[in-house]
Amino acid sequence: MPTIARLPDLLISQIAAGEVVERPASVLKELLENSLDAGSRAIQVHLEEGGVKLIRITDDGCGIAKDELALALTRHATSKITTLDDLERVGTLGFRGEALASVASVARLTLTSRERGASHAWKLRGEPGAEPEPAALMAGTVVEMRDLYFNTPARRKFLKSESTEFAHCADAVRRLALTRPDVAISLTHNGRSLFQLAPADAGRRIADILGEEFVGAARLIEAASGPLTLAGFAIDPTRATDAKDGQYVFVNGRFVRDKVIGHALREAYRDVLHGSRQPAVCLFLNIDPALVDVNVHPAKTEVRFRDSRAVHQFVFHAVQRTLAAPVQAAAAPSLAPTEGTVPAATCPPPAPATAYHQPEQPRQASLGVAEPAAAAYLTFARAAQGVGQTPAPRPEAMPQFQPVESAQNEAPPLGYALAQLHGIYVLAQNASGLVLVDMHAAHERILYEKLKTAFDNRQIATQNLLIPAVFSADPLDIAAIEEHAEALRGLGFDIAPLGPNQVGVRSVPALLQSGDPAALARSLIGELREHGITQLATARRNELLATMACHGAVRARRQLTVPEMNALLRQMEETERAGQCNHGRPTWTALTLDQLDKLFLRGQ
To answer: Which helix (H) or strand (E) holds 11?
Structure first.
């Protein structure tokens, strides 16, 4: 029978390293977190061969005392938690006390540090029996890791190419830089400087890392509810791309990949994304540390919320409200940076631990890294809400609206109609320039939102047809009509068999009266046969209403009068999610006078 024996300490650390040290980027993340927790104001990162050969991090933090250098390389040694209560309210990025020991077990590690106020620095090599020796360093700490997996070649074979490993390292630096815009961070690879980020406000840091285009194409988000606050940017649905790596979500300053938040984002974008496009976001969620467990994964990229449903609903509604803002509300300040600037935000001076205040909480928690980013993003403006009410369309005509007279040189967000192009697009002029509207897509969204409201309120008005619309149907269609007759009336349809192979439509929803009654009925009957009324009333309810709106919207090549075009523009300004149709396609775009001048080389 095999004998049970205690494992050697080195083997224990190497086993732990398998969980913590997946690749060079894992080492870099852990070391950067330590530097931020130490209150650093400037951090320099030097890499060689994608971080496999060398990772050197230099910071100006509080430093480590000579007598604690050896302890810092010991497993389960940390200055950040001492009791179970500290573990339940973690306020720092690093806390497990495994990183340095794990790295030292699979790489050549050197730790050089000078404590503030100390006469000089001390250096310690991560080797058994090593002693601290004097070293030269102005202040702070230098952690140098060389030859990752030099003593475990089997693990090294799992590493990817140099370019791939470096890409992961650069992404780790960017994520940490997003949480602390007040800290200067530089990155060098193989002697080449990749970027140098100076201390800045939160908006400037996001533009530096994610690009001016992201900031210009995103919408500002701000929301608060009890112990939860959310702030940041979410991409405008029209500007979304197929890239799947554009989601930066931080919980109390910690980058996470959380299924709850990810699902909330997908649901918020469900009605407005086209095809396989993905939502790109940079969001900062702050929550009472006692309500989230960050100790569920060795790499600390996963968290567990005490009330995950409340977090899901909070994130979902915050993002959905912003995306659903009518054109009238969203047309105020543009998100695009002007003359190289972005919305300013103030960051408090960094410290090893700064106070993060929860309203009306009996106990205040120290969250170090979370406060600067959270405080900065909470300066964003709230998006106005509200849906306008408009009369139902007349048969075979767009709704008639009289333009509201405005002051001289002023115009509504979508302006006033000028003409119709090829019976497809509406051309309008607003205060900024030219607006182009896809009339079918725009009308489709308007009808869809009105149908959803009417369906939820059980107030779908019907319009009787002067002459019933008759079409052919097979016995299964007729059986479905007879089975679901009551449900069809609830949707605003009066459909009845007229013979063994014929069906007549006597009334349709008033909102869809200008559509093709037979096409509407066929589509609805097909949905009923495939899914049944129960599913249509729940999971597929929006899909059904979207199909109805598509069939009922004004068709291409339909000639509209100027009042009809203006009516369409006014309804768009009052309708939620009017920027995209039911399929996620854009409904309108605009060209400013400056863009038109550049197009025609005016002034050049």
So the answer is: helix 9-20
Highest mean pLDDT among 183-192, 214-223, 526-535, 545-554: 183-192
Query: Given a cut of 80, is residue 252 above it in pLDDT?
Result: yes
Cα–Cα distance for residue pair 437/424, rounded to 1 Å: 8
**Look-up of token digits 């600067």:** 372
> Cβ(28)–Cβ(51) under 8 Å?
yes
- Tell me the residue type at 84: L
What's the N-to-C CA distance of the chain in angstroms? 89
The whole-number average pLDDT for the span 444-454 is 88
**Which is it for strands 42-48 and 184-189: parallel, antiparallel or unpaired?**
parallel
Would you state the structure tokens that stand for residue 134, as one six-digit string?
A: 């004097």
Domains of the chain: 9-197 (3.30.565.10), 202-377 (3.30.230.10), 416-590 (3.30.1370.100)
Q: Which whole-number Å values give the CA distances from 224 to 232, 258, 326, 371, 457, in the listed order?
A: 12, 20, 21, 15, 28
Determine the Cα–Cα distance for residues 398 and 463; give it in Å rounded to an integer: 16
Distance of CA 495 to the CA centre of its chain: 44
Taking the model in full, what pTM does it have? 0.72
Please give the torsion angle defined by the CA atoms of residues 446, 449, 450 and 452, in that order, rounded to the nearest 10 degrees. Answer: 160
Q: Per residue in 195-210, pLDDT tens?
A: 999 999 888 999 999 9
Q: How many residues does the chain have?
A: 604
Cα–Cα distances in angstroms (integers) from residue 100 to residues 63, 71, 292, in the given order:
15, 10, 25
DSSP per-residue letters across 428-447: EE-SSEEEEEEHHHHHHHHH
